[in-house]
Specification:
The protein is α/β, with parallel strands linked by helices and 226 residues long. The chain has helices at 14-28, 51-67, 87-101, 116-128, 173-180, 196-210; strands at 4-9, 32-39, 73-77, 105-109, 139-143, 165-168, 215-223.
Length: 226
C-alpha cells in the first residue's frame, strides 16, 4: 500500500538533515512525499542578506529534485521567531497543509531540540494531528536535527531524544548527502555536526545501533495500526 507523506520542517535543510534518506526510501516505494518549510531560515543571523531567503528556497527546490519529492512549500515565517506567534496560528497553518495533502505519515522535529522554532513546530504538529476519526494521519515520527537535537543540554519536553524507530538508508545515504550539498550556505566544515562528514558519521552510528550500514533514527510520537 502506498503512503502519502508530509514532512513539516522549521527551516530549509532541516527536512534533509532529519530524514532525507527515509524520504528517498518513500519515493523509491512510489509514495507521494510532500514538504512544508515553515520558517525563512538563517535570517536571524546578524550578517544575513535578505537575498538569502530566495537562495535557500532555490536550494530546497534543488534538493527536493534529488530526493524525488514534490516541490517544497514555504510558509515564510521569520527565522527563530516562531514563538512570537500564537501557537494557534502555527497550528492552523499545519492543519491547512494536512487538509490539502491528506498525509498518512508525518515527520517533524523532536520536541526537546535546542532550537526554539523546532520545539514550537513539534507542538504545533502534534496539536494539528490530534487522533480524531476524521484525521488521515496514522503515524507521526520525530527526527533528530544535527546541531540542534544533540546540543540541547536539557530535555525541554521532559525527555531527550531516545530513538524507538530506525530506518535503513544504506542505499540512500549518498543521495541524502548529494541533496544536502545543495545547501551551500548552511553546511559547515567538519568536525561541525552539520557537515557532510558529520551527517555520514551519524548515519553510520545509527546504523550500527540497529544492524544496518546506515540508518536514520526517530522517536515514535504516535502510531495507529488497524
Amino acid at each position: 500500500m502506498t503512503e502519502t507523506v508530509l514532512v513539516v520542517a522549521a527551516h530549509p535543510d532541516d527536512e534533509l538533515l532529519g530524514c532525507a534518506g527515509t524520504l528517498a526510501r518513500h519515493v523509491a516505494a512510489k509514495d507521494d512525499v510532500h514538504i512544508l518549510i515553515m520558517g525563512e531560515g538563517a535570517t536571524s543571523r546578524a550578517d544575513a542578506p535578505m537575498s538569502l531567503v530566495s537562495e535557500l528556497r532555490e536550494h530546497a527546490v534543488q534538493a527536493a529534485k534529488i530526493i524525488g519529492t514534490q516541490p517544497p512549500r514555504f510558509a515564510g515565517l521569520p527565522d527563530n521567531r516562531l514563538d512570537e506567534f500564537p501557537l494557534l496560528q502555527i497550528t492552523q497553518r499545519v492543519e491547512a497543509e494536512v487538509a490539502a495533502v491528506q498525509p498518512s505519515v508525518m515527520y517533524t522535529h523532536h520536541g526537546g531540540d535546542l532550537n526554539k522554532d523546532h520545539r514550537v513546530l513539534h507542538q504545533a504538529v502534534v496539536t494539528a494531528c490530534r487522533p480524531q476519526m476524521s484525521s488521515p494521519v496514522r503515524a507521526i515520527y520525530a527526527y533528530e536535527t544535527p546541531s540542534s537535537t544533540e546540543w540541547s543540554s536539557t530535555a525541554i519536553d521532559g525527555e531527550g531524544f531516545r530513538p524507538t524507530r530506525f530506518v535503513d538508508i544504506s542505499r540512500h545515504l549518498e543521495q541524502k548527502l548529494r541533496a544536502l550539498a545543495c545547501y551551500r550556505s548552511e553546511m559547515r566544515a567538519f568536525p561541525h555536526s552539520r557537515s557532510i562528514e558529520g551527517v555520514r558519521a551519524l548515519a553510520t552510528w545509527r546504523g550500527a545501533m540497529s544492524g544496518y550500514s546506515a540508518a536514520e533514527a526517530f522517536v515514535v510520537v504516535r502510531e495507529r495500526v488497524g
